[in-house]
Amino acid sequence: MNPSVVPPLRITDPARFGRVAVLLGGVSSEREVSLDSGRNVLDALLARGVQATAVDGIPALIEAIRAGGVDRVFNILHGGDGENGVLQGLLQSLGVPYTGPGVLGSALTLDKIRTKQVWIAAGLPTPRFARIAPGTDPGSTPGQALRAAAGELGLPVFVKPSCEGSSVGVFRILREEDFAEAVAFATDYPGELLMEQMVVGEEYTVGILGDTALPSVRIVPAGDWYDYHAKYIADDTRYLCPGMEGEDEDAIRALALEAFRAAGCSGWGRVDVMRDRAKGLQLIEVNTAPGMTSHSLVPKAAATLGIGFEELCWRILEQTL
């Protein structure tokens, strides 16, 4: 199958989906974004005649399943147990179909460090990195650990939690004075941190829909980099789609699909890529429950192929049948 071709719809009757729980909200650091995404998905499914209901968080979903009111789940629970394999294992054990990758792909890709290790083993390009373990060695401090890793990689670098999303806790370190905020965060953060060489070049993302890699999106923030504000608040971030042309566009879409599959993923998701001016394309991370807000990128890419938001949600839900 051509990875750039979108197949025709397989389902035309919304009754085939039965009762759909749109899982949103939850308790992760991405709750507010998830609520926004979930409301949009719910409205889209209802507009197409799907019997859909919003369910906030996994405990509420369990109760709804126990009550016999759920035939399948549209998972738009960003971060935490919505993307780390916990939800997927639960639903798989209960025999409830769900959108997005399964247990392995979800658990692996929420962990940026392990994802990069798999990509490296598969011979796929990704920036050099260092792992900052939770806590520190006796006699060491978070500041010393961060500076030691930066000394190994060389500035500039990014520091980010290995298992968070939406640019939560991401710090850009260009010079010595930039360490302070990252050190303060690392002092209190209980999980692993990833320090990654900063790619000097353009930022892209590629949506995955089944066996199709959607057109790339080039992200051009008004500020220096694509942080939380640029992603969800600012209206001056520019999105160019397709982000590349000709053979370059074919290459980034093929790489994104290969990276998605290498990480054990299927269904739908999004692969973030950068083009280093010296090294070429570099894989950054995978999102297995991408945003579906007014600023989100998978809907923008789908729209360039004539797939509106309602149809996109329908196509994602089709994958559960």
Structural notes for this entry:
- The protein is α+β, with helices and mostly antiparallel strands and 321 residues long.
- It has three domains: 14-99, Rossmann fold (3-Layer(aba) Sandwich), CATH 3.40.50; 108-125 and 200-307, D-amino Acid Aminotransferase, Chain A, domain 1 (2-Layer Sandwich), CATH 3.30.470; 129-197, Dna Ligase, domain 1.
- It is built from eleven helices and 13 strands.
- Strands 8, 9, 10, 11, 12 and 13 form a six-stranded antiparallel beta sheet that branches.
- Helix 1 packs across helix 11 (309-318).
- The longest helix is centred in the N-terminal third of the chain and has 17 residues, at 31-47.
- It is globular, with a radius of gyration of 20 Å.
- The two termini are 20 Å apart.
- Belongs to the D-alanine--D-alanine ligase family.
- Residues 116-318 form the ATP-grasp domain.
- Cell wall formation.
- It comes from Pseudoxanthomonas putridarboris.
Which terms would index this structure?
globular; six-stranded antiparallel β-sheet; alpha+beta; Dna Ligase, domain 1; Rossmann fold; D-amino Acid Aminotransferase, Chain A, domain 1
Which structural class matches the secondary elements?
Answer: alpha+beta
Average per-residue pLDDT, rounded, comes to 91
Helical content, roughly? 25-40%
Q: Mind telling me which CATH architecture of the largest domain this is?
A: 2-Layer Sandwich
Strand content: 15-25%
Q: Count the helices. How many? A: 11
CATH superfamily of the largest domain: ATP-grasp fold, B domain
Low-confidence runs: none
For the sheet with most strands, the description reads:
6 strands, antiparallel
Query: What is the tally of beta strands?
Result: 13
SSE succession: EHEHEHHHEHEEHEEEEHEHEEHH
- What gap, in angstroms, lies between the N and C termini? 20 Å
- Determine Rg (CA atoms, Å): 20 Å
What CATH calls the topology of the largest domain is: D-amino Acid Aminotransferase, Chain A, domain 1
User: Under the CATH scheme, which class of the largest domain?
Assistant: Alpha Beta
